[in-house]
Specification:
The protein is mainly beta. Helices cover 12% and strands 37% of the residues. The protein has 4 domains: 108 residues, conserved putative lor/sdh protein from methanococcus maripaludis s2 fold; 88 residues, Efflux pump adaptor protein, beta barrel domain (Elongation Factor Tu (Ef-tu), domain 3, Beta Barrel), CATH 2.40.30.170; 60 residues, PGBD-like superfamily/PGBD (Muramoyl-pentapeptide Carboxypeptidase, domain 1, Orthogonal Bundle), CATH 1.10.101; 127 residues, PGBD-like superfamily/PGBD (Muramoyl-pentapeptide Carboxypeptidase, domain 1, Orthogonal Bundle), CATH 1.10.101.10.
Amino acid sequence: MMAPAEPLETETNGERGGRRWWPLIVAAVVVAATIATVGVLGWNSGTSATESAEASLSTVTVQRRDLVVTETVSGVLGYGDSEPIPFRTSSEGVDTVFGGLAGVVTDAPDEGVAVVAGDVLYDVNTAPVVILYGDTPVYRTIDRRTSDGPDITFVEQSLVDLGYDPDGDIEIDEEFTSATRAAIELLQEDIGAEVDGGFSLGEMLFAPGPTYVAEALVSVGDQVQFGQPVIALSAAPEGTFTSVAEEGAIIVQGDVLYRVDNRPTVLLYGESPVFRTLGVGEEGADVAQLQASLIDLGFASGDLEIGTFDDVTLEAVVAWQLSIGAQPDGVVNHGEIVFLPGSLRVGEVVASAGEIAMNGSPVVMTSASSTFVTVDLATTDQSLVDVGDLVDVGLPDEVDVQGTVTSIGTVAQTNQAGESFFEMVVTINDPEAAVGLDEAPVDVDIVSDSASNVLAVPVTALLALSEGGYAVEVVDNGSTRLIGVETGLFADGLVEVTGDSLSAGDLVAVP
């Protein structure tokens, strides 16, 4: 930085011939060429005329202000990695299916697959085992030689419901008839079984309703014996999605994610996922999470016995259930809540209103509620920014919003052009500021230098002196005088200046 010349206070009385003008044009070009493209906080320049006896000069006011130099880098908006939120029902009521056929497993179901009446559960020696609906276990062969009984009623009702009695010949009762046999043959043709009009023991299973495979206990190729456990089944929910949060919605603690038969599933905050039903007497970290949420939502105070589901917790749960339209039974069933560390954004709706709810199937795909900007920060720019710094983000609609640097990679990467960079992530401070702009390109302004509360003038007000240094021409009461100045930070056509007798509010001449 060039040292200023001695302060000059030469009155010109409107005559410009006594000043050293020869270096000014060259100096102005050199100074302007050294200025970075930057952002400046609120310059308000005014133009006035100060009349002297023989000349009129354009002037601006010396201002005390902040100067900021920024560097603009490119980034892309996003919401982080998507995570599924599945529908869950109680894990209680799992039943084990014991094989009724001996041989080699030739087909086995995947865990989590839903099974309804008429579906084949698995094959042994290519013989299919079919599911029908009934409230009793299968304990005998069902064919024309079988005596009357309620199990025949279940078979006939299932066959009618599945459409295998097109002419309406079956009379649903406990008697096996020729119409029953004909309907079984139609079913056997559809599932690829031997068509003999009856079910040998092990060829058919009863389930009370829609079922899903909780665990496959055997695999294709396994040898199985009569009575060996083969599959664990659990009752699938008998319900329909009646509402699901909309895509792009920001879900916070206490909000409903979806409803099944109008029963709500609510987001609560907690690190531990839901894994059991919570009621009076239960203890643990999940209970503590529930209690903390009830306190935050205003349904309880700090007088709870944290970690223990006591009577006070029961009262708070009932009040909360009434507020969301849930059954006020004081029990938080598996699937009625979802514990997550914080709010979320619905990135994609997988299940729609009207669809059957199946345990374990995804309902929505979510991401963090905050909008992120990912920046490939050049290695040469790494020193310009730190985690926690505030930056300005220019959105595609030309609106600027503020963000916070939340992470900077520590391992350099290389792009397709062979340039090294560190991945920097900026979080938009207002989650609503960039809704609907996922994957949009943005500009990020990083502060590379700044000066606070300094005197500033336009660069064009600087006069280069032949003896070295710079001056500004102060206009005062019809006369002008030169004041030597020292330059500091240059920012977007402005320059920081210091000089004896120069103050905020002074008028300085500009071309």
